[in-house]
Amino acid sequence: MNKSEIQGFTLLELLIVVLVVALVLAVSYPSLSRGSASIHLRTTGRDVLNTFRFAREKAVTEQIGMKVTVDRENQRLVLANELGDGSRTYAMPSDVKIHRIALGGREIPEGPVGVRFLPNGSSDAVELLLKSKTDSLLRIISDPITGGARIETGSGENFR
Q: Of 65, 88, 144, 146, which is most buried with the most CB atoms under 10 A?
């Protein structure tokens, strides 16, 4: 075999490839982490929404009042019937926080807040504002007449 027939990469070529890959990762990582935080916020919002929907469904089908206690200090939701039996707890993930709670249109600055779901399908009017570690916001609103809940996404001062 002649030396001219041996093929391969030089050390300089390998270093250039590694440098290009590192540069691409350094540029794209911040946008990837923001995207994953946004997905995690939406997933948590759906979990809270499903807790409200489950409470309403259970109140209607079993004809007993249900209560979801939203505890901002401990970052959790507790679902129980009106007697406090059969409670289930949903702990919020560490990167998503309950930022604001409004009951009946009034902001509740501190303490746990109980949201009632009645056997006729109605509920208390509640609005939860969830905030991710990247300051993205997601609002969960419960309609007092139908007891249904929905999610709104947005940003800016009018969303707070």
A: 65
Tell me if 126 sits within 8 A of 103, measured CB to CB.
yes
Tokens 């249904």, residue located? 148
d(CA 47, CA 71) in angstroms, rounded, equals: 15
Task: State pTM to two decimals.
Answer: 0.75
- Into how many domains does the chain fold? 1
- Intervals of the chain under pLDDT 50: 156-159
Burial of 69 per CB tally in 10 Å (0-12, 13-18, 19+): middle
Residue 6 in domain: no
Q: How far apart are CA 75 and CA 117, in angstroms?
A: 21
Structural domain range at position 40: 13-159
